[in-house]
Amino acid sequence: MADPASESAGDDPPQLECRRCGRALQPGRGDLHVVSILALADPYPPVFTEDDLALDVGSEIRNLIAHLSGLDAREAQDQVYRRQVFPLCGACYHDWIDDPTGSGF
Ligand SMILES: [Zn+2]
Fold first, then answer.
1. Residue 81 has what pLDDT?
2. Please, are residues 13 and 27 in contact by the beta-carbon 8 Å criterion?
């Protein structure tokens, strides 16, 4: 599926399906929402304990490099930043926006 947010006016409308229920959507008819979700790994400054500071920094860096060398660039990026853009039909949007985490609150 093409990124629905990147389509420009005047192009043929993209063929879209509701990501949740699969219903065919007709862009430009007002019966869909495009949802954009941005997920970031903990953006707060790291907290270090005395135990952390007592560790061998060189060893910790080598362990981190070994861990990262096993990942491709996409996997590494997905661990810290992920963006999802998808269409929802009106009914699914209204259900989703009221409880986006599925927690029932
Ligand atoms: Zn739907």
1. 93
2. yes
Domain that holds residue 26: 4-91
CA of 38 to the centre of ligand 1 (A): 21
Say how many CA atoms lie within 13 Å of 43 toward its Cβ.
4
Number of structural domains in the chain: 1
Residues 66-76 have pLDDT tens digits of: 988 888 888 88
State in Å: Cα 26 to ligand 1 middle.
Answer: 12
Cα distances (angstroms) measured from residue 83 to each of 35, 41, 100, 102: 10, 12, 15, 19
Give the distance (Å) from ligand 1 centre to CA of residue 93: 7
Q: Are 41 and 81 in contact (CB under 8 A)?
A: yes
Is 68 a member of any domain? yes
